[in-house]
Amino acid sequence: MKILVIGDIFGRVGRDAVFSYMDKHYDEFDLVIANGENAAHGRGMTRSVYGELKKAGIDGFTMGNHTWGCPDIIPLMKYSDDLVRPVNFEGDVPGSGSMILTAKNGKKVGVINAIGRTYMQAVASSPFFACDAEIEKLKTKTDIIIVDFHAEATSEKIAFGYYLDGRVTAVLGTHTHVQTADNKILPKGTAYISDLGMTGPAISVLGLDKQTIISRFSDGMPQKFEVASGKGQFCGCVIEIDDDTNSVISIQRVYDEF
Predict the structure, then answer these.
(1) Is 66 a catalytic residue?
(2) CB 214 within 8 A of CB 185
């Protein structure tokens, strides 16, 4: 079985890159998961954007610190079975932190979304302890569990990967929008990468207009953030899983430009 996981989709350019890539490669994968927290103009996800990306062939979505960036996603978050927000958000917030998706081959795949606490502004409890409980719940339904860890600090991501090594199928970092080259299988069999990268404007600063960000850094004056335009890039990874043992065979990075 092959699972494609797409890094943070950023704005219109990112959505177009998804369609361009999926038009060529959709049949290669048994399941497609994407981080969608930046999909609507770089901040949040609207119901219309959700519907658009479902048509591209994405089976399920994870979110992050911009989960509530577009308020009209809240009713969808309450009732959807293919859209999750971080499991360790504190308080009585809408939605769920995990979901079960069905792959083309009929296998059930659990997906957990968690958010880091280092250099992040989200009000969240320990992702380590929150995932402990969620894993136990999902283990009653499936042996295949993918975790999207939406976090800033590489050290927190690496520690989280080793903490869950052998207990989940994959720990995949999102949020920093720069694809890392550390894809590997950890000692106890869990696939890992610190960041899947961004699916969005290729010529940009993390998806935003480069000149606006250069000006902000150079003179310190406040600037209105604008989503970049131009050609797009597609980032993510493909996890290959043995159909008989459910163990990870490989984790390969994906990068393409359109």
Answers:
(1) yes
(2) no
Contact 21, 15 (CB under 8 A): no
The tokens for 189 are 């069999």
Rg (CA), the chain: 17
Judge contact between 2 and 238, C-beta under 8 A.
yes
Closest CA to 180 of 193, 161, 162, 165: 193
- Reported pTM: 0.97
Spatial CA neighbour of 33 closest among 13, 5, 53, 56:
5
Find out whether 235 and 241 touch, Cβ atoms under 8 Å: no
Contact assessment for residue 50 and residue 69, using Cβ atoms and an 8 Å cutoff: no
Residue with tokens 């219109």: 12
216-221-224-229 Cα dihedral, nearest 10 degrees: -30
Q: How far apart are CA 100 and CA 145, in angstroms?
A: 9
The one-digit pLDDT tens for each residue of the chain (258 residues) are: 999 999 999 999 999 999 999 999 999 999 999 999 999 999 999 999 999 999 999 999 999 999 999 999 999 999 999 999 999 999 999 999 999 999 999 999 999 999 999 999 889 999 999 999 999 999 999 999 999 999 999 999 999 999 999 999 999 999 999 999 999 999 999 999 999 999 999 999 999 999 999 999 999 888 888 999 999 999 999 999 999 999 999 999 999 999
Helices 127-138 and 154-164 pack at an angle, to 10 degrees, of 30
Instruction: Out of 66, 150, 175, 177, pick the active-site residue.
Output: 66
Place of tokens 């939406």: 150
| Helix pair angle (47-55, 11-25), 10° resolution | 20
Q: In 3-state terms, what secondary structure has residue 75?
A: helix
